[in-house]
What we know:
Blueprint: H1 2-17, H2 25-32, H3 36-49, E1 53-58, E2 61-66, H4 72-77, H5 81-89, H6 103-115, H7 119-125, H8 145-160, E3 162-170, E4 175-189, E5 192-199, E6 204-209, E7 213-222, E8 245-251, H9 256-260, E9 269-272, E10 278-284, H10 288-295, E11 301-305, H11 307-325
Antiparallel strand pairs: 1-2, 3-4, 3-7, 4-5, 5-6, 8-10, 8-11, 9-10
Helix pairs in contact: 2-3
Amino acid sequence: MPRNAEVIRQWSILRELEGARGATIDDLAERTGVTTRTIRRDLEALQAAGFPLFDDLVDGKRYWRLEQKAFRRLDATGFTLGELSALYFSRTLVECLAATPFQRDVATAFDKLSAALTSGMRQFLDRLPLVFEAKGAPARGLDDRAEREHIAKLLDATLHHRRAQMTYFSLSSQREKDYLIEPYRLIYSQGGLYLLAWVPEYTAFRTFAVERIRGLSLQEDRFTPVDLPEETFAHSLGINEGPPERMEISFDRQIAPYVRERRWHPSQHIAETPDGGIIVRLDVTNDWALRSWILSFGPLAKVLSPASLSNQIKDETARAAARYALE
């Protein structure tokens, strides 16, 4: 923990020194809650790592600053030192992209960012993931060459508005089916890559899991795209399209603080109840993502409306109870 506290404090110092005026050692000590002696050691350590720190006497006070234009390598990127360092650190936050076709591009980009930093800077920044970590959804590796080729074709189709003929395996029907599609967007969500495409046969948009595409060929004819919402799956807690409905779910007071502190959907509205619980209102699609979210709270959640959703949850819990009753 002391090492973690040290790296966080030193990162805070760098951010403080990025300002035009900089900061005095007394200022830094006060803001970080340590002694001036500790600040002096931090400044020496950061200088040894290669961060361009210097001090300047202004009106009788000695201010420390971080030189933003010290390296031509940084000038070439167009990034400030703070921006470059933050991007280099953020590689731990984009590891979820490892299952996408952009894995190599992401790795190459971070290699270039790394080259603009000194060895000491990289060693300092490499310690930050020890105190801050991002955990993504379970991801699949793209080991199938055919799947990679499908993704390349879909990127081509979406960029150039080309229609495509697709053979797709449906989990619900357990069979393959051929579709004529107009690909609109690839979305990485919940550990998988999904295609949003217009299906003329259904006169509707449909979502397809890229991993279940069995065959794909692009056609020469093109389609005229329509405007899509900025946010795909806007009315779903998951990766589905559909019209929103007003959902009301009550949560017992034991779980209310946890539910209240999170933003589950942009449409949510929370009302307090006299017994300390809450009622959450959402304008979302009734899909498996919503039902699994409600079921995850067990007996601490109850659907108030609509009746159709309440009946579905009752059926799910009854079937789950029946499975345990057979043991």
